[in-house]
Amino acid sequence: MPAQGYTKMFERMLDHPNIETRLATDFFAVRELLAAKQIVYPGPIDGYFDYRFGRLPYRSLRFEHEHLPNVESHQPVGTVNYPNDHAYTRITEFKHLTGQTSLGTSVVREYPECEGDPYYPIPAPTMRHCSSAMRPWP
Fold this sequence. Notes:
Blueprint: H1 5-14, H2 27-30, H3 45-48, E1 58-68, E2 79-81, E3 90-93, H4 94-98, E4 105-113, E5 120-121, H5 130-133
């Protein structure tokens, strides 16, 4: 965690004469007007290319939050990936990220989903359908 938080870190990074930030702007409405060498586009990668090669299949996530009273720590670090052993793929325990010292802890488990916001493109041609992407990896 940055000492003064992520907001302050990004404010300092973006406070540069060579960086222009546009909020509440439709990227596709101004795309042809931009003369930048580099652009940070936070949307889906296939959308950036106007879906010229078709739409990519995406995996989404479902988040389950849980508070564990009377538990000092659930795991040794802030985020642990569980790619093969459970229905969830990752657990984040926020206490490790913020430096809190209190009895009890809060965790969030991430579960892969077919529907929802597009988090991760599914790259393998054999995994074009969400149902096959949801099967546990060998």
